[in-house]
User: What shape does this take?
Amino acid sequence: MAEIKTQALDSYLRLIEISRDLASTLDLDTLLDDIVRAASDINNAEAASILLYDDMARQLYFQVATNIDEPTMRGLVVPLEKSIAGWIVTNRQSVRIDDAHKDTRFFSDVEQTIGYSTRSLLGIPLITKNKVVGVLEVVNKKKGKFTDTDESMLTVLGAQAAVAIENARLFQQSDLIAEFVHELRTPLASLSTATYLLLRPEMSLEQRDQIVNNIHNETIRLNSLASSFLDLARLESGRVQFRKARFSIADLLYEARDVMMSKAQETNVQIRVEVPNDMPLLEADRDKIKQVLLNLLSNAIKYNRPNGSVIITGDYTDADISINIQDTGLGIPEDSIPHLFEKFFRVREHEGKAAGTGLGLSICKQIVQGHNGRIEVKSKMGVGTSFMLYLPRSPRTLPRS
Ligand code: ADP
Assistant: This one.
């Protein structure tokens, strides 16, 4: 009895502590992590997870859990009909179950994906301003069953979590949209000037050609700004699920080179690939890794000098696979390096030299981090730049010892 009382007191203290933190955290990822950790502590559960609900798409997405490898699960869609979480959203009620496998609402696909077995479960809807924003679940009580006290404590935590999640989401969106609208202004202003000039009778045919050319380029840029922006917004909201597969990274490097070959030939830039013969397989989302490589390669060509070169090198250790994309280009000023991966950032010195959106590197970083990897840069003005990718090797791609 005394032990139970101490445990309850610990839980209350933890609840007070976390409430304070939640109110002041605006970073959605940190916030969600804090919530699941607190939930499993407070309820003395083996694990906890959060699913977020998108009421436009009417879909539930797996978001974070204390017990699983994030990239596998993040963004995984959980059906509203055949799941306990879906039932919680639809009925706006909490659920307490002693044996999940006996419950017909249970969605075992998630279990298969994560290889984790659920016995007991307690789940509550996260509701704020009468809107369901998601579901908070704790699974497998360490001793005994989930109790009424567990449920009421989780409900208190959930009420605060819902408000904090909504705040963080609004903050994230307003930030991104404000930046996007700001970025739209420049191309729109030049389009507006261009059409004004086209309407002037004194323009020569040659000048008109040039203006039409400008309009064409600006529309292409607006188009790529829009698609990059959507890409980034999806990545930042955590709704992208990485589809992992094992593939030859060496082949992918050659493939990326082939795709960019004609672009490189325009300025007579040479691209070379160097990979060891025994380069191991990589387990990752192939399309997304290809997107990163093409982005870096496109930059290495775009910000190169005529007749320059790009070397793509692959290498590996027991821990990770590394890819280096090195160019003989303009280089990046030292004071710009810390800002390189910020949204919409472009080096001022390069602005007139090549068109771009300033979103490419932010997208690369999101994808690489989503794979638990990292991206680094080294550069020297007038000499060149190299971007290094490090992607962890999954145990399944390591040779058996
Ligand atoms: P974009 O190329 O569309 O402007 P990115 O996010 O891909 O956007 O890159 C941000 C900025 O970083 C670029 O505008 C450019 O100034 C600089 N940069 C990126 N890659 C290189 C490179 N290989 N060499 C020199 N500068 C680069």
